[in-house]
Amino acid sequence: MLANEVGRLGLSKDRMLDYCLMIERHPDNVAAALYGGFVGTYLSDLDPEDMVRKEIPLSEVLPTPAGGIDTGLKPPIPPLGIGNHMRFPWSPAIKAIVIIPDFEVSTARAREVLPAKYSRADAVSILSQLLGSLSLPCVKVFNMQRIAILTHALGQSPPNPELIYSGMQDAIHQPYRKELIPGLTEILQSVKPKTHPGLLGICLSGAGPTILALATDNFEHIAEEITEKFSEANVQCRWSLLEPANEGATVSR
What we know:
Layout: H1 2-6, H2 13-20, H3 28-35, E1 38-43, H4 48-51, E2 83-88, E3 95-101, H5 107-112, H6 120-132, H7 143-153, H8 161-167, H9 174-177, H10 184-190, E4 199-204, E5 211-215, H11 219-232, E6 237-242
Antiparallel strand pairs: 1-2, 3-5, 3-6, 4-5
Helix pairs in contact: 6-7, 7-8
């Protein structure tokens, strides 16, 4: 955004996304920052000629040194439409409580604890959800089925706690990352809409250790309950109440 303004490049957000994805070959974070709101994304397949240049990383895990081999050549103009996105409706009643422990979990470590292979059941679970709407990971048909429902449920008014809570359950990464985050299992098993009025759903945010809880009311009570459970595991936390930044990245002059 800054380069676009200072250089007077006149690039649209869609075109800026192409440039960003030459560096980071997964659009989830950068698209959310650019467009704002509740955004689903996927990465387009590049033509073979577009993949020849080393300045375009071949995966999200860049080779050493980061960015690939320095060819000494001028970076290429990125292809059009590297990433694709869609805005989903988001109920204005829903706010996000983020509980942030005072330690970090590196993405590399969080990936190490995941299995190299998933069972057919887990894979089916993921695929069925993808086929429903967003692309996520089927013999359990667990995650996939839920994400298809979740993307719709988050836009309903009033929100349905049963649908959202079930939709935020996970069989792909949370069971394996619990060893990295003290108190995680107890929190996910005990903090539910039936016991915490106003709560809609709860999950590990990305690789963690932050916990994300969606709610419509009783924000402080829910946050304090979760921080107390972390405290019982000798983990100190802070929390914030957030709402979607619907405009995404903007420039103020």
